[in-house]
Amino acid sequence: MKSFFDWFNNLYPVWLVSLATVAFFFPQTMLWFGKEWIFWSLAASMLGMGLTLSLDDFKSIGRMPGAVALGFGAQYTIMPLCGWLVATLMQLETGLAVGIILVASCPGGMASNMISYLARANVALSVVLTICSTVLAFFFTPMWTSLLAGSRVEVDVLEMSLSAFKLTIAPVTLGVLIRWLLPKTADRIGACGPTVAVIAFTCVTGGIVAASAEAIAANFGRLAFAALLLHLFGFGLGYLVTKLFRFPESIARTVSIEVGMQNGGMAAALAKQHFAAMPLAAAAGVFSGVMQNIVGGLLASWWKRRKSE
What we know:
This protein is mainly α. 80% of the residues lie in helices and 0% in strands. It has a single domain, classed as Up-down Bundle (Na+/H+ antiporter like fold).
């Protein structure tokens, strides 16, 4: 059974693109997957993340403070500013600009841990960075979205902070508590965590594509190019900054992947809740999820064939 789940999870980009294609050409197949489904499915995937975490994972932060500080700082400076830069350089219309900035202001995506493993990077550091950026997303995501997109659209920082809290802190904390109090139960449920995350974001993608099919069709090229540009900036600058600070290759790869890969599902869920009148804002999260997996997968294949320190 475990080998089946591994096989299923490794084909995540295939399921993502396949369902997005079906939802685009036949929207009625996924229109039922609306705002509430999107929110709770992402919360479930965050619970799955929490179930896999132990107190030792948090203690490991103290064993590599420099790398953690650099990775966290890069995540919440490089990416938001790159999102604003892409929106400005491409002169994106309001909805798409807000979506790109929102994606860039979100924490690292859980798929980054798998990509780090494939790229022979530091998986422990990847997990710690994902935890740190996710736990503090309730503050940094609304803050950056307000600072960088506030001139384009009204951003309710308090409401967005509350939504991000419900989507990240609450389910992750619940998962950690279950693991602490009922470790055997956590092991049984947590084993399905990655698969739940794959299914959740695949369905989120399908639901948003179905609801935004017309807007996506009219802006497909700009959506795809904006998302691609954002993630190329993230991967490239994350690697470059880490090398400038003379960290070893494995750390540079890890930070590159963490900075370059965002939680597109979270961005899509927040956009659906707070920018419902702008379908392209949520669509940006979907395109981000697709593009980062393509770029991350290609990069992992490249690095896998090259020695890491």
